[in-house]
Amino acid sequence: MAALARAFRGCRFLMSPAAPAAGGTRRPVAAAAGATKAAKAGATKPKAAGGITIPLPVSDALSKFVGADQVSRSGAIKLIWAHIKAKGLQNPADKREIICDEELKTIFGNRDKVGMMEIAKLIGPHFIKK
């Protein structure tokens, strides 16, 4: 308290407790923030699928790999990365490079190695346009 008095030079107004809000008692800031998040979460509707999350018909090669006739672009990328990580197909010397096994070669046009940034570009032709 003495340190505060020295910092504010004894100004009683600055050291006095805050007055309650004009409509009732004060709530802690954390409780007020949690209440607004809960109100927003209940009031919003789930968004419709759009963009890369829309399931689209795919080619036979990607259909065999995924196991479905339709898949979203983001879903296909997730399944490809799950396959890569499960089989340990990343090059240990360069993690950006993927060494293709037989299953991935069918999707990536018989390429032995693929860069991680090329995956989305290489699966693009497998999605059939409506």
Automatic annotation (TrEMBL):
Annotated gene: ga06359
Coiled coil feature spans: none
Transmembrane segments: none
Boundaries of every DM2 domain copy: 51-129
Gene3D superfamilies: SWIB/MDM2 domain
InterPro entries: SWIB_domain (IPR019835), SWIB_MDM2_dom_sf (IPR036885), SWIB_MDM2_domain (IPR003121)
SMART domains named in the record: SWIB
The protein's name in its UniProt record: DM2 domain-containing protein
Pfam family, one: SWIB
